[in-house]
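The instructor's notes for this session suggest beginning with a concrete chain rather than abstract definitions. Hand out the sequence below and ask the class to guess, before any prediction is shown, which regions might be ordered.
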Amino acid sequence: MDYVEEFFKGCVKTLRVFRALVESDEPLSRYAIEKNALVYDSKKTLERFIELGIVKTVESAVLKYEINRENSFVKELEHFLVKVGYISK
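After discussion, reveal the predicted structure:
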């Protein structure tokens, strides 16, 4: 599976959702992700991220999502996006 091709489907929404998750220090609900990322309906993007191992779900009263910081693709992409200024850390 080519992570890069899979990851950049629907580029703007994908990047904004990734950025919202990476910049958060705590798990986020889908509503919070959409609000922070300024996107509508992130469900398919989050499902793809889960399938790729980029995001993990956290069980609570409301289903929440967090970035999988152990994933090597996440580490490299985050490093690149910080380096180019897309993500602030």
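Then share the key points. The CA atoms of residues 5 and 78 lie 16 Å apart. The chain is about 55% helix and 10% strand.
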